[in-house]
From TrEMBL:
It comes from Halomonas colorata. Transmembrane segments: none annotated. InterPro entries: Cycloisomerase_2, Haem_d1_sf, Lactonase_7-beta_prop, TAT_signal, TAT_signal_bac_arc, WD40/YVTN_repeat-like_dom_sf. This is Lactonase family protein. Residues 1-21, 319-342 are annotated as: Disordered. The keyword Signal applies. Belongs to the cycloisomerase 2 family. Keywords: Carbohydrate metabolism, Glucose metabolism, Signal. PROSITE patterns: TAT.
Amino acid sequence: MKIKKDLQQQKQSSGIPEHNSKLSRRSFLQAIGVSAAWVATAHGAFAQNSDSMGSPANEQYLYVGTYSSPNTAPGGVIPSQAEGIYVYKMNLETGNLSPVQTVKADNPSYLAMAPSKRYIYCVNELGEDDKGAPLGRISAYEIDERSGRLTLINTRSTQGTWPCYCAVHPSGRYLFAANYGTGTFSVFPLGDEGEIEPMSDQFQASGNGSGPDPVRQEGPHAHMMLSNPGAQHVFGIDLGGDSILAWELELATGKLMPGPVPQAHVPSGSGCRHLVFHPDDNRAYVINELSSTIDVFDFEPRRGAFIWLQSISTLPQDTTFTRPSFNPNNPGEVPTGTNTTAGIKIHPSGRWVYATNRGMDSIAMFKVDPESGQLTSAGWVQSQGQIPRGMNIEPSGTFLYVGNQNSDTIVVFRIKSDDGQLEGPIHIIDSPVPVDFAFGSFARS
């Protein structure tokens, strides 16, 4: 693959408001605690990934999910030329990528790394056959620890359509999948060798009748399923129902039981898409696809309860971008002059949040208040391509990788350690329909 460098970095205005440095003792200790934990984790990872001679590894494997040929990505304008999952080596000093392997797969649009980093999982985002039978699948791959290359282990039906998200439970014992089309959330046990075992449970979301938005919310649409950092609960994001569903997972059986607070909600018609938790597990940030907003919640991990704090736009105050009138024949389309959101990530330090805008084609940056957890806009940078769908932050917090779905490029930004601003792009890498990123183990020489 051709790799291009943007040799002249773009200078971006920070746009960060003056911050009040007078913190309470509680907020100061929380900030110090999270930062110390992040530094300790990064230092531990560095130490554990030195070779036998004691020299540190300077490369790490990166896995990129795509919508594959001959399919057209949601909101895409031409059929994809991608073949499946793309494996790269990432240089930890420069952030640049070098290709390792291409693994043929059907629409592996979202990836999930096992805690051991020995296995990786993907959804196969497919609809239904001509008889209406669901075609959605989920697949498991073994990762060669030396080369980073993938070998297929097995694949199973998600018993739903258009599965768009997967995640591994922190225990490593279960795999979750969200079926967008059928509005169902699936649970699969995982075997000792990483294989996906028969489904142990599935939950059918109810949506909200015909929906506030009759095109995008005409029924339930499962968009994400994940655990909180402490693993006390499992949550499902239903875009169609503007709701966050909460369960407790029985580890012995793989069954979902209703949580003490079974659901939370975002404003009607917002279309919640993804959720990230603060590293302290006391706050949560929900990105809403349809309204281009982020809702901030206090989170109580013992009960799995969300208390709303704030809504903030991912667009500038004086924006001319509007909410789309969605096309029922291509609901993912983003017409010129309109905007929807896609990805949301929080920095490992817990100090900054990033979100992607499709239409404005930008990454919105936010500063996290260490006391309240609320967000303040810190500016925007252009994604240097069209329809930036997915992104991820490299585990040390140094680089942000953004996938421009309709421009076939991965764009790399450097994250400034003092204020979280994005510098660059420092690299623009040709890669077909990149939509998700998962970080693997450190490469060995």
